[in-house]
TrEMBL record:
PANTHER family: DICARBOXYLATE-BINDING PERIPLASMIC PROTEIN, PTHR33376. The lineage of its organism: Bacteria, Pseudomonadati, Pseudomonadota, Alphaproteobacteria, Rhodobacterales. InterPro entries: DctP_fam (IPR018389), TRAP_DctP (IPR004682), TRAP_DctP_sf (IPR038404). Gene3D superfamilies: Bacterial extracellular solute-binding protein, family 7. Keywords: Periplasm, Receptor, Signal. Its main location: periplasm. GO terms for biological process: transmembrane transport. This is C4-dicarboxylate ABC transporter. GO terms for molecular function: carbohydrate binding. It is found in: Periplasm.
Length: 328
């Protein structure tokens, strides 16, 4: 036992020395927060950025990623990043709604035609304009990640057209936009906690819900709601942002390295997300789910006119939505 204890102490001491030596190699260590678990596409995306930054700065700048809310939930992590307590954060646009008002528009249903459309918008001039809004709040937006697309699934029948939604009851998040979206589509919205969805579909309290492929798969909802319609009514981007205080400590050359690495990491993250979606689709299909892909989205989009009229009220917001929709 004594020999084992001495060996263990020796191993721990060696590991501690190795960690200290690695830290000494980095002139700057940036701490990055993520709420998702280890191995999740956003976590691995920032790690890819970290690897490129470390290589291009010859080890001078290191980015240490803390997954699984180790540095706090998204709202807290954002606030800490604004104050420079944390150096970086990866978070959903939805969490920034009270900080950067323009991000509210990205929770509008059917704002993006598909994922390629979202990428073109976020990687173009509109993404640059949004970055300026983040900068006003002491956050430097470096890259936009893919947060997935939410679609409808139910236990009753395939949804091939907007008429199929009439009278059906769907669980949605407690959000006025979502409730109004369901009403515009002719369905009934039933806000409820996520943990109650499975039993509520199983018992017939609701007909279905809406979420992305991985959530549909991992939650087990595919077991009780076999029909998944790929309408992609909601795509909310995510952002990788650096504290302005941490950013201004970097040289212009290092800032450029960070920007390039972040943009490259977005490409990697999006592919990782696509791979995860594909794996989840294969899982649910193998378990008997029916995927409805070939639908005409036009009637769904046109039905959103009263929703947009209610929530897109200022000339600036109307112009931004118009430019997003016109991006090719």
């Amino acid at each position: 036992m004594k020999i084992y204890r001495n060996t263990l102490v020796g191993l721990l001491a060696t590991a501690a020395l190795a960690t200290a030596a690695a830290a000494q190699e980095c002139e700057v260590t940036l701490r990055s927060s993520d709420t998702h678990p280890d191995g999740y596409p956003t976590v691995e995306g920032v790690r890819a950025m970290a690897a490129e930054v470390k290589e291009k700065t010859e080890g001078r700048i290191c980015i240490e990623v803390f997954p699984a809310s180790q540095l706090g939930e998204e709202k807290d992590a954002i606030e800490q990043t604004q104050f420079g307590v944390i150096d970086m954060v990866r978070a959903s646009f939805g969490t920034f709604n009270d900080i950067v008002p323009e991000t509210q528009l990205f929770s509008l249903p059917y704002l993006f035609r598909n994922q390629d459309h979202m990428y073109k918008v976020m990687d173009g001039p509109i993404g640059d304009e949004l970055a300026a809004g983040f900068a006003e709040k002491d956050l430097i937006a470096l890259a936009y990640y893919d947060g997935g697309a939410r679609s409808f699934y139910n236990s009753q029948k395939p949804i091939d057209s907007i008429d199929d939604l009439s009278g059906m009851k769907f669980r949605v998040m407690q959000n006025d936009v979502f409730v109004d979206m369901m009403s515009a589509l002719g369905a009934d919205a039933t806000p409820m906690p996520y943990g109650e969805v499975y039993s509520s579909i199983q018992s017939g309290v609701i007909d279905g819900a809406e979420n992305n492929y991985p959530s549909y798969d991992s939650s087990g909802h595919a077991e009780v709601a076999k029909y998944y319609t790929l309408d992609q009514h909601l795509m909310v981007p995510e952002v990788v942002a650096v504290s302005k205080l941490s950013w201004e400590k970097l040289s212009p050359e290092d800032q450029q390295i960070m920007r390039e690495a972040a943009r490259n990491s977005a490409v990697i993250q999006r592919q990782l997300w696509a791979d995860q979606e594909k794996a989840s689709e294969e899982n649910v299909v193998a378990d008997g789910a029916e995927i409805i892909k070939e639908i005409d989205k036009t009637p769904f989009i046109e039905a959103m006119a009263p929703v947009y009229e209610k929530y897109v009220t200022t000339p600036e917001a109307q112009d931004l939505v118009k430019r997003i929709q016109e991006t090719q």
